[in-house]
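Can anyone check this?
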Amino acid sequence: MQMNDRGASTAVGYVLTLGITLLLVVALLSVSVSLVEDERSKAVHSELSVLGNRLAAELTTADGMVRAADAPGTVTVRATLPDRVANGQYRLSIDERAATGSFYRYRIVLESDVADTSVAVHLKTGTEVAETTVDGGPVVVTYDDGTDTLEVVA
């Protein structure tokens, strides 16, 4: 009786080792890709939050200048915001939530195209702010004496 399958165990072991190694590499890559996407989403959310607060600060500055002046005339405040967040476009919109007494409450919403993320920043002003939506980038906050409102334009 003669055995002819002596070399088969080496080839089978080699194929099994390659298969298991390939499965481990694919699993590791898929986990790392989802981890990178989660970190990118967190970074975009954080950056949008900072930009929203910067715009709120500029609107508050313009509001203070308008309210402090007897005849405000022309008030212009420039907000230097980046064109892109995490290598993608974003939009910002301002909408009124409520008018309470002599103050107006607004919500500034920043939305990213990249990470499908949005951030809302709340703002309270004594001067009315025109509701608007503009693409991300540098904006100018101006006071319109005729309508007694602050406007955000790109």
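Reply from J.R.: I decoded it. Helices lie at 8-68.
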